[in-house]
Structures are given as C-alpha cells and as structure tokens.
Write a structure and sequence with these properties.
Vanadium-containing Chloroperoxidase, domain 1, about 190 residues, mainly alpha
Length: about 190
C-alpha cells in the first residue's frame, strides 16, 4: 500500500513538475527563495505593532522565532528519520523531471518551506483576524504558492508538500494558542 502511494506521489510530481517551462523558471525561483518574502514579514510585524503595541510585538517576535525553530527542527527530524530522497536525487527520475533549483538537498520528507510558510500564515492570519478578516485567506494562498514552488523547481514530491502544510498549520495554531496564554500571563 505504501509503495502504491509513493508511486502515485511520483506520478503526480512528474505531472506537476513538467507543467513548467523556461519562461516561468525565474518567477518560481524567486518564489522559492526564502529571502523574497522579507517585505511581507516586515508588513505583518508592522501590523502586529499597530494593533498590539511594542510589548506584545516583542513577545510575539520570541514566539514567532520559537515557532520557526520548532517547525525547522521537527522537519529535520522527519527528514533524517524517513530518509526519503528528494526527486532531484532519484536516478530513475533523471531526464524525466525539470530540475531548476539552485541546489538539491539530501532528503525531502517533509518540506520545510511548506511547513514554515503555513505556520506563519496560520499564526499571523489568526492573530490579525479581528482586524483583517480576509488576510488569512491571502496568507494561506501565499503559503500554497510557496509550497507548489518546491514541486516546480524539482526538489519535493506532493506528499512532502501536503505533509509540510499540514504540520505547519498545526504548528501555527499551537503557537497562536501559546501567544494567547503568554499575553494573558505577562502582558494583560
């Protein structure tokens, strides 16, 4: 059953990855670059400051740093535990995939880009929901685009992406609840 699931995952990866073309490669390389979205993070931090003030912003910077560290470390534990090679490392897929990423890591299950972007989207979306009702949908869409970029550039299977998104949503929600507890305990 697992072998069949992995086969379907590979087939879906090949389909999605091969939808790309050289016209769009530069765009997806920008999307997949972690530094591209620093302005988005700065805007979100400004909105947090605007609605919650300095004390809460400082607390949330620590909570967000802990959340990203948490998702990164759990992602690495999964990668080292499952040791599923990335598609760009599978010899049987050579010549069948479009590999446009600048580098190919060793293991891919599950995607750190997906988990981190989804954690940030859920956390910020829930936090700012009272002020910007539709922001969470914009952030979820952004996270999905970041996640898809990893398939496009050839470094993750769809199952890596879906698992990363699910874990990121869980982490974002848990850290959102943690910040409520910490705010009530230390700031309010």
């Amino acid at each position: 059953m697992i072998e069949q699931l992995l086969q379907y995952d590979t087939e879906l990866f090949l389909f999605l990855n091969n939808l790309g073309n050289t016209t769009w490669d530069g765009f997806w390389l920008v999307v997949t670059n972690k530094l591209t979205f620093i302005p988005l993070y700065a805007i979100l931090l400004f909105l947090i400051y605007k609605h919650f003030g300095w004390k809460t912003l400082l607390l949330l910077v620590f909570v967000i740093a802990a959340m990203i560290t948490f998702t990164d470390q759990i992602t690495n534990l999964f990668k080292d535990g499952f040791k599923r090679p990335r598609p760009c490392r599978v010899n049987d897929l050579e010549g069948l995939i479009r590999y446009v990423a600048p580098r190919c890591g060793k293991y891919g299950f599950f995607s750190g880009h997906s988990s981190n972007s989804m954690a940030a989207a859920v956390f910020a979306g829930l936090l700012l929901r009272p002020y910007y009702k539709n922001l969470i949908f914009i952030l979820l869409f952004w996270s999905a685009i970041v996640a898809y970029s990893r398939i496009y550039v050839g470094v993750h299977y769809p199952l890596d992406i879906v698992s990363g998104l699910a874990f990121g949503a869980f982490a974002g929600f848990i850290f959102y609840k943690l910040q409520i507890y910490l705010k009530n305990r230390f700031i309010s």
